[in-house]
Amino acid sequence: MSTISYYTAEGLKKLKDELEHLKSIERPKASQDIAEARDKGDLSENAEYDAAKEAQGLLEMRISKMEEVYSNARIIDESTLDTSKVLVLSNVKIKNQANGMEMKYTLVAESEADLKAGKISVTSPIGRGLLGKSVGEIAEITVPNGTLNFEVLEITRD
């Protein structure tokens, strides 16, 4: 059973570009590697041929999985999202209650998460804990090191 994934327009384009790259560049390269290995002689003792066939199988499996993800991908209509609560694509400014440190994150789909860019997944512990919270609420989030309390200071959209 495949699940629907939600993406921003940018994230969906990135997924499509990667899929096209695999199909148009990596797939022909894998076929060429097999052909070159086949030309080197006896296939029963040809480790290069076996490795090339295995690499092609892994590539085809990756392409198949990405095609499935792409076919079940949906673009999030940001205009319909409620800005009073933390949802996917919310820019959230939070304050750690323990040390007073403030952080700003954008909640995104799991495949678009990039901590360096301030994008955290809605399926991460912090992302899950913040979903549905409003400004002023305290999110009690269980992480591997224990429990953290974050106050939601601000919710915005780009």
Question: How helix-rich are the residues, as a percent range?
Answer: 25-40%
Count of individual beta strands: 7
SSE topology string:
EHHEEEEHEE
Number of helices, counting only DSSP H or I runs of 4 residues or more: 3
Provide the low-confidence segments as ranges.
Answer: none
Distance between the termini: 33 Å
Shape: elongated
Brief write-up:
By secondary structure, the protein is α/β, with parallel strands linked by helices. The protein has three helices and seven strands; from the N terminus they run E-H-H-E-E-E-E-H-E-E. Helix 1 (9-38) packs antiparallel against helix 2 (47-71).
Describe the fold and architecture.
The chain is built from 3 helices and 7 strands. The strands form 2 sheets. The protein has a 5-stranded mixed beta sheet. It is elongated, with a radius of gyration of 22 Å. It has helices at 9-38, 47-71, 125-130; strands at 5-7, 73-75, 91-96, 102-108, 119-121, 138-143, 146-156. The longest helix is centred in the first third of the chain and has 30 residues, at 9-38. By secondary structure, the protein is of the alpha/beta class.
Question: What order do the helices and strands come in, and which of them pair?
Answer:
Layout: E1 5-7, H1 9-38, H2 47-71, E2 73-75, E3 91-96, E4 102-108, E5 119-121, H3 125-130, E6 138-143, E7 146-156
Parallel strand pairs: 1-2, 4-5
Antiparallel strand pairs: 3-4, 3-7, 6-7
